[in-house]
Amino acid sequence: MAELSRRPWLWIGAGLGLLVLGAVALRPKPPVRPVPKLQPVQQRLEEPVSALGRLEPAGDVRKLAAPVSAMGGSPRLSQLLVQEGDGVQQGQLLGTFDSRPGLLADQALLVTRRANLTAQLQLLERDTGRYRRLARSGATPSGDLDNREMKLIELRGQLVQVQAQLVKLRTDLVQSELRSPITGTVLRVLARPGERPGTDGILELGATDQMQAVSEVYESDIGRVRLGQRVTLISENGGFAGTLQGHVIRISPQVRQRQVLSTDPTGDADARIVEVRVSLDPEDARRVRQLTGLKVIARMAP
Asked: What is the pLDDT of residue 34?
């Protein structure tokens, strides 16, 4: 105590330290702020792509025309054996032209002439062989042999010419009949018996066993379309009940002007679109095999 009384500054320092400690202890603590709860991020659901389209056969529609002669004309249709909506097989006879009877008559004449020339040639070859033996022995003049050999060459040339004419005639006979190049359905008849078919042809065929839909997707939506994407189709005008199912099999690389117009009079007829081809599921394809060209609405799942 004597030492502390002699050093008053120690008392002052100790007092100041106690005051500081007391101030720190009595200072109010800042309020604890609650941690804000993280709200779940709501992802924006992508909407399906909708587009107008039409039903088509899986392959291109075949337009069958009449044969054209060397003079630029075409024969008349004498017989038509099918109607619109009929199913046909590849190679099936669909009709005939009025040029066929004349071609068959020409074929019969050429066949008869070929038979006569063949018989004459066989006789002359035997006779010429006999004269060759006589000429070698000096029993006959060589001029007789020369005449027969010249005749032999002439007959052979005539036979070759008839053979060539028969080949050409068979080609013309094939063209005098109208046969189906594919297995499908008669979509449209464009000419009737007795008419001379024009540039439009005789009839249209389509392979309707595998139906597809051609959808016209706006160029602004084509980025959301991909191969294999599932597609649901409905009829805009009630052409079929329910829905059809399919998937995208081809996206055209070309932007073009739309062809399928909406019933909405305010629709943009000059809109730019990309054609997207959709293959229908087999069961649904059979349901609409008779509805080529029907307008549909396609919705492509996101």
From this structure: 64
